[in-house]
Every structure is written in C-alpha cells, then in structure tokens.
Amino acid sequence: MDVRNCKQCGRMFNYMGSSLCPNCAASLEEKFQEVKKYIYDNPSANISQVAEEMDVTTQQLKKWVREERLAFSDSSLVGLNCESCGALIKTGRFCEKCKKDLGNALSDTIKKPEVQSNPFADRKKSGKDKMHFLDR
Ligand SMILES: [Zn+2]
Ligand SMILES: [Zn+2]
C-alpha cells in the first residue's frame, strides 16, 4: 500500500495517482466546475479576473489549461508558452508545430515539404471570449 501526504491539507491517504487526498481532490473538482460555470457565464473574463473572482490561483488555472480541461480562446491575447519553443498557445503543453515535430520524431524520418504557415489562420474563428472550457 502506498501512503502519502496530501499536498493540500497534509493528511495521509492511500495514493491512487493523485497528489491530493480524496477530500481535497473532490473540493478541487467542485472548484473546477464553479470556474467552468463562471467562464461560461463570463466569456470575456481573463485569467487574472477568473482567479480573483473564483479565489483560485492563476497557477491552478494554468494547470487546468495544461491538462487541456480549460483553454484560452483563439482571440485571446493571453495564453501559455509552448514548453518546447515558447510560442504562445491556448491549451495543452506544446504548440502545433512542436506537437508535429515530436510526432514526426517518433513515427517517421521522411522529410515532408514544409507547409507555409498562414499567420491569419488562427484568427478565422472570431470568439469574443477570452477563455472557454473543454468538456472532457
Ligand atoms: Zn487533502
Ligand atoms: Zn512549440
């Protein structure tokens, strides 16, 4: 049996893949649902506004974004940096290019012709919202 201390409240619990005890995990999940609802009701809220209104840290919000549970909208000027090249991304850990590079490195070594990236391609979806949620 793997017993650990909860990162949030420090209590011992049976480790099941989460660094939080069942109690804290449940209240964090509850918080996520509240945040999700808040973002739904306030589509123009930015991350610091959401953090302030919902009493969560921007770190926690970004963690949810990294986990692809939340995402910044395409029109948002705020985002995260790709962990590989630092490009601005809206959700996850890597930009599309690095995702592709990582995929290519794993799968094939054949050079594909470079696709010219269109700087306006990302703007075709005109959302006013700064954040939205991914229902998974
Ligand atoms: Zn706890
Ligand atoms: Zn990248």
Comma- or semicolon-separated keywords:
alpha+beta, 136 residues, binds zinc ion, two-stranded antiparallel sheet, 36% helix, single chain
Mean pLDDT across all residues, rounded?
82
- Overall geometry: flat
Q: What is the helix/strand order?
A: EEHHHEEEHE
SS elements, strand count:
6
Helical content band: 25-40%
Determine the strand fraction and express it as a percent band.
Answer: 5-15%
Kindly describe this structure.
It is a single chain. The chain has a domain at 20-110. The protein is α+β, with helices and mostly antiparallel strands and 136 residues long. It contains 4 helices and 6 strands. The longest helix is centred in the N-terminal third of the chain and has 20 residues, at 22-41. The two termini are 30 Å apart. One zinc ion (ZN) is lined by residues 82, 84-85, 87, 94-95, 97-98. One zinc ion is lined by residues 82, 84-85, 87, 94-95, 97-98.
